[in-house]
Automatic annotation (TrEMBL):
The lineage of its organism: Bacteria, Pseudomonadati, Pseudomonadota, Alphaproteobacteria, Hyphomicrobiales. GO terms for cellular component: plasma membrane. InterPro entries: Cyt_c_oxidase_su4_prok. The keyword ATP-binding does not apply. The keyword Oxidoreductase does not apply. Its main location: membrane. This is Cytochrome C oxidase subunit IV. Pfam families: COX4_pro. Keywords: Cell membrane, Membrane, Transmembrane, Transmembrane helix. It is found in: Cell membrane. The chain crosses the membrane at residues 61-85. It is a multi-pass membrane protein. It comes from Afifella marina DSM 2698.
Length: 87
């Protein structure tokens, strides 16, 4: 089986995992969904956009970008929760 086929199966599994985590209560559900989204984004970048063939610098830059976007979304979620709790 080729690597791109394994990447496709991983994306399907991650999609099913994100659907399964939607029933988790509390602040853990958004964190899990963001982590799964980051894993899916990195998989798409590496296999389907062929960033895995690029230099280490490009791979690192795009990995850091994906993590930064997810961290920003998580931070906004936390800040919004604090504002909602404050009244």
């Amino acid at each position: 089986m080729r690597g791109i086929d394994l990447a496709w199966f991983a994306l399907v599994a991650l999609t099913l995992l994100s659907l399964g985590t939607s029933g988790v209560a509390g602040a853990l559900s958004p964190a899990l969904i963001l982590a799964v989204a980051a894993a899916k984004a990195i998989t798409v970048l590496r296999w389907f956009l062929e960033i895995g063939e690029a230099s280490r610098g490009w791979r690192l830059l795009l990995d850091v970008y994906v993590v930064a976007i997810c961290a920003t979304i998580a931070g906004i979620f936390v800040i919004a929760g604090q504002f909602a709790a404050a009244g």
